[in-house]
Design a protein that fits this description.
The radius of gyration of chain A is 25 Å and the shape is flat. Helices cover about 70% and strands about 0% of the residues of chain A. Chain A has about 300 residues and is mainly α. Chain B folds into two domains: about 50 residues, no CATH class; about 210 residues, MetI-like fold. Helices cover about 75% and strands about 0% of the residues of chain B. Chain B has 15 helices and no strands. Chain B starts with 7 loop residues before the first helix and ends with a helix. Classes of the chains: A mainly alpha (about 300), B mainly alpha (about 280). At the A-B interface, helix 1, helix 5, helix 6, helix 8 and helix 11 of A face helix 1, helix 2, helix 5, helix 6 and helix 7 of B.
Chain lengths: ~300, ~280
């Protein structure tokens, strides 16, 4: 019996390796190896061209962590980090927004399905499309928002709607644009959560005569907790990944005021050819993300064991 | 919780909210069918005097969107097929084979899908440029997309393949079926809905990618539509009528997929519970 089991296991192992081989090669090459290579590059001053890539402390004078020391003294780095924190905070508002939309449109009606499809739509747009659409929407002289604000008298004749050109508010405009597809995504997850709620608990609460707010706060929200955890983590990862939209709508400007780490890393690396410095920025970004990744893994594993 | 009926007031509020929500889309749609003359006269937000598709024609010809569109298809289609194939193989191993690395492998796949892309940028660029010589080819972008999407897709397929009862697979094994035959003739046919759900997600994500074509492709002729739209913005600054038409064209394939396969798409998103 034991012999046959180990025979089966051996057979399974052989098959497993054969089935996994092409994926492992690709994944190792393009996802696993790059993490370590970036870590290594962050202690070099590679320019992207020279063949030899050696740590800069080999000369015995420079610190191995010179890139990180330079980052510490780099104003744009701090500006980008600050903006990333703003993204983390305010991009997260797409979660309650998605929840509100889900609660509002959680109705059994043919028309509601049609409404939902339209609400979901931004979710399938490329961020380049979102950026293009929103750049026009928020355009300072002729955009629709400017037109509407003038219509209701919030903007005077001759004034321009300068949100995206303002070094204080550009990030707000970017986060609003990014939240548009993301809130739709949160709405999808919450709608799925809502349709899985235990009906008897809610009916019992309604018989007890609780108010709608109490129902939401004490019963529905706790039941949606698993969805919320996933939504929050995915949202935070998204906030750290923010790149496309910023590169398209403001390119980090005006004067780096809307820059973020992901874009600054790209600029330093591929525009200024400071690969080592770029790698150091990516390592900082990675370190922040790692915390979230570990949280996500823990939550998913908890769901796994809870399910089986 | 699910209200059965809602009154008139509800529908008024819901409709207004919906209109507000899609107003950025409506703005671009409206501008895209207006003529430049009409816009130059300052009639931005009136109904179009004539319904003109001229901007779309121009985006396709002058803006080279026909080339970009084709490139996006050439990049997206094989990637989706390859990811479906490899991830279902991985999913089968992770769900049904007694393989001692299964749990660790699952963590690696799951963790990888949440990485910030920046940690991969330079090494992937370096690999393609100096080692694999796939830099500035569509194939190079395809290879990277396949590799990266394997993380999410393998996790996704594993969860679905887990729902197949072990009994029928054991029975096939006792009958002497090879694992490959079990996978290809039993598992895959049962996985059709899951594969459809995964395919819609993958298509959308890969079609919509911008960053990786920016890093890995230099030649304009082989760039995908997202990069093409960005080019259009750079070359025709303030030509909002053209940009709007370009944005609509770039959005059409994923919107079509979503409209036709919404059930699969939504199920994919909620079952995967992560991007």
């Amino acid at each position: 019996m034991v012999g046959s089991l180990s025979f089966m296991q051996k057979r399974d192992h052989k098959t497993a390796w054969r089935f996994l081989a092409p994926s492992l090669v690709l994944y190792g090459l393009y996802v696993i190896f790059p993490i370590f290579f970036s870590l290594y590059l962050s202690i070099t001053q590679w320019d992207g061209v020279s063949a030899a890539v050696t740590p800069m402390c080999l000369d015995g004078e420079t610190s191995c962590f010179q890139n990180f020391i330079d980052l510490w003294n780099d104003d744009v780095f701090w500006m980008s980090l600050k903006n990333n924190i703003a993204w983390l905070l305010f991009f997260s508002l797409s979660a309650p927004l998605g929840l509100a939309l889900a609660l509002l449109f959680h109705v059994k009606a043919k028309a509601a399905n049609f409404y939902k499809s339209l609400l979901f739509m931004p979710m399938v747009f490329s961020l380049v499309v979102v950026g293009t659409i929103w750049s026009w929407f928020l355009q300072p002289e002729f955009g629709l928002v400017e037109f509407l604000l003038k219509g209701i008298g919030l903007l005077k004749e001759g004034e321009n709607f300068t949100l995206m050109a303002s070094d204080r508010w550009a990030t707000a405009g970017l986060i609003a644009a990014a939240s548009w597809p993301h809130a739709a995504y949160c709405m999808v997850l919450y709608l799925a959560g809502l349709s899985n709620l235990q009906k008897n608990v809610i009916e019992a609460a309604e018989i007890e005569g609780v108010s709608r707010w109490q129902l939401l706060w004490y019963i529905v929200l706790p039941m949606l907790r698993p969805a919320t955890v996933i939504v929050v983590i995915v949202t935070m990862i998204g906030a750290l990944r923010a790149f496309d939209l910023i590169s398209i709508m403001t390119a980090g400007g005006p004067a780096n005021s809307s820059n973020v780490l992901a874009l600054y890393m790209y600029q330093q690396t591929f525009e200024n050819f400071r690969y080592g410095y770029g790698a150091a920025i990516s390592v900082v970004l990675f370190a922040i993300s790692l915390l979230l990744i570990l949280l996500y893994l823990r939550q998913t594993l908890k769901d796994e064991t809870g399910r089986s | 919780m699910e209200p059965k009926r809602r009154g008139l007031l509800y529908w008024i509020v819901a409709t207004l909210l919906l209109l507000l929500w899609i107003s950025p889309i409506l703005a671009s749609l409206l501008t895209s069918v207006k003529t430049l003359e009409e816009l130059n006269e300052g009639y931005y937000w009136t109904l179009p005097r004539t319904f003109s598709l001229q901007n779309y024609v121009e985006a396709f010809t002058v803006g080279k969107f026909s080339t970009y569109f084709l490139n996006s298809l050439i990049i997206t289609a094989p990637t989706v097929v390859a990811v479906l194939f490899f991830s279902s193989l991985n999913g089968y191993v992770l769900a049904k084979l007694r393989f001692k690395w299964n749990n660790k492998l699952l963590l690696v796949f799951l963790g990888g899908m949440l990485l910030p892309f920046q940690i991969l940028l330079i090494p992937v660029f370096y690999l393609s440029n100096q080692f694999l010589h796939t830099y500035d080819t569509r194939f190079g972008v395809i290879l990277f997309h396949i590799a990266f999407q394997l993380g999410f897709a393998s996790f996704f397929m594993r969860n679905f393949i887990k729902t197949i009862p072990d009994g029928i697979i054991e029975a096939a094994r006792i009958d002497g079926c090879s694992e490959w035959r079990i996978y290809s003739t039993m598992v895959i046919p049962l996985m059709r809905p899951a594969l459809a759900a995964l395919a819609t997600l993958l298509f959308t994500w890969i079609w919509n990618d911008y960053l990786w074509s920016l890093i890995l492709i230099q030649t304009d002729q082989i760039k995908p539509i997202t990069a093409g739209l960005q080019n259009l913005k750079g070359q025709w600054i303030a030509s909002y009528h053209l940009q709007s038409a370009g944005a609509v064209i770039a959005a059409i394939p994923p919107v079509l997929i979503f409209a036709l396969l919404q059930k699969h798409f939504i199920r994919g998103l909620t079952m995967g519970a992560g991007k």
